[in-house]
Amino acid sequence: MKQAIVARTDVGMGTGKLAAQVAHASLSAYEDADRRTRKEWKGEGQKKVVLKGESESQLFELADVAEREGLPYAVVRDAGHTQLDPGTVTALAVGPGRDNIVDKVTGDLPLY
Amino acid sequence: MKQAIVARTDVGMGTGKLAAQVAHASLSAYEDADRRTRKEWKGEGQKKVVLKGESESQLFELADVAEREGLPYAVVRDAGHTQLDPGTVTALAVGPGRDNIVDKVTGDLPLY
């Protein structure tokens, strides 16, 4: 099992900011998963991969695919206190879920 | 309330790697918190800050302080499949907890 987190490369986030947004997405999608999935993923060491996304529209398209695949997912918007405009979409987390199902959503994206 | 995640700057993690380790630490410390704390922090928007740490020994010292303050915390070791040697300590998450208590542990560290 794994979780894939897609972070936008086109909004100019610094490293710490990006890491916080990825963590936010990860936790929110985790909370969207059922108890059994959460337990299994944690038991396997909560594998995560961080991938590059290129636009807000791409993240929403991927979220739609995740929805259709029945995967937990979460889209994160920044509160905009620093660096970004309020409401900027920054990251999408998909899973935890089976590797091959998560790959149906994010398998074509490059590693961050 | 907030959660502070301290990531090491001295082990040469790439951006995506660092984000994954921060997310791992964040989720593990979250799971270490009691239900009421988790709920309150999420209700406030799960505020997170990512800070710079400089060594493994520093992270363990800060974890000791978190323990003494009664805060949830988690130290993350990398599985070492990529980039780092297996077992390398990469990140420490402290909280969620009251801002002033979290600051007792990590208040002197620079933003990442």
From TrEMBL, chains A, B:
Highest taxon listed in the record's lineage: Archaea
InterPro entries: Pep_tRNA_hydro_II_dom_sf, PTH2
EC number(s) recorded for this UniProt protein: 3.1.1.29
Signal peptide: none
Record family assignment: Belongs to the PTH2 family.
NCBIfam families cross-referenced by the UniProt entry: arch_pth2, PRK04322.1
PANTHER family per record: PEPTIDYL-TRNA HYDROLASE 2, PEPTIDYL-TRNA HYDROLASE 2, MITOCHONDRIAL
Function, in words: The natural substrate for this enzyme may be peptidyl-tRNAs which drop off the ribosome during protein synthesis.
Protein known as: Peptidyl-tRNA hydrolase
